[in-house]
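Hello forum,

I keep getting stuck at the same step: I have a sequence, I want structure tokens, and every attempt I make locally crashes halfway through. Rather than fight my setup again tonight, could one of you with a working pipeline run this one for me? It's a single chain of 215 residues.
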Amino acid sequence: MDNGKLAAAKQALDYMPNQGVIGLGSGSTASIFIELLAQKVQAEQLDIICVATSTQSQKLGTQLGLKVVDIDEVDRIDITVDGADEVDPDLNGIKGGGAALLFEKIVALNSDRNIWVVDPSKEHKRLGQFKLPIEVIKFGSHHLYRHFEKLGLSPSYRQTNGEYLLTDSNNYIIDVDVSGVDDLTALATQLDQLTGVVEHGLFLNICDELIVGGQ
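Reply #2:
Ran it on my machine without issues. Output:
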């Protein structure tokens, strides 16, 4: 187990309330947090409810004994603990390496507080070293692909075992290169307005606190 990820996940436990609704993130560091949270809930008999950002996190949490419910069964989420693929000094990030960006953003935007747990390798002075995932519906996806080509974003379909990867919502993901984009806020607005784009992995002004696990 990565010591940096473990250290960050352990630190996030200190923010857990005795009662409340907790958002369970996706990815390797978030999975470590879910395991630690389950141990804490059992040891201290905490009264918490969880919502998950992916079917994988929901399955893991349930297997470990956490009470995981559908997001529409709760009115609000107190704290969500999630990972990030890349984060800058302003706590803006790129997420979606695990293809859960849509559910992750829905949970994040409905959370009172968002804590990201990462290892030092995820910190960069500017975003763009990690490819930006864009979730698109299947119908007409190649027209969007060509649009991203015209924008100079070097798109590529996310694939697994030679087949187009399908998200939990049965959509495709097109990864694009934003290393040459100076105004990511403007790009986010542009992507939000494109018909056929379900969601993108730019998480801007969402993270409230960043925990970096290192030495």
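The CA atoms of residues 7 and 213 lie 5 Å apart. If your local run keeps crashing, start a new thread with the error log.
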